[in-house]
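Problem 12. The chain below contains 148 residues. Write out its predicted structure in token notation.
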Amino acid sequence: MGLLDSTGEEPESKLRRWVVTGAIFVLLVAIGIWWVLRFHNEKKTVEEFLQAVIVSDMQKAYQIWKPTSSYSYKDFVDDWGPNGFYGPIKSYRIETAQKKSGASGVIVVVELSPFDAFPGNNDTVKNYRTKEVRLWIESRDLSIGFAP
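Solution.
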């Protein structure tokens, strides 16, 4: 029997192959979970904020926003209230969340709609009334502001 005529595999190399394959699989699953959940806290903050705006709990929304002293409650209601610049808001869709390198926060892009059910992509009349807003979520305290 020659070297190239071997039909079996060494048990040691079979075990090594399974260990390496298993380690790579675990690593890929961990990376996938991280990728899906990397902006979870920031998106959850935006969802909580927009739910408060939808039910017209502007005090709660203002607290979630954690405004600076230069952004008064009146300014906030002028922007987010039912008659404000972005209002009325009845539904929303989070489009993307992204973090620029070296940034201390995350930009969350949200589409806002005045309709109870967010319009589908083929409903051009209703989509015309949707507005896109880019929100800055500071990662350390989850305060919200408008993206720079």
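Discussion. Helices lie at 11-37, 40-54, 58-65, 73-80, 124-127. Students who got a different answer should revisit the alignment rule from Section 12.3.
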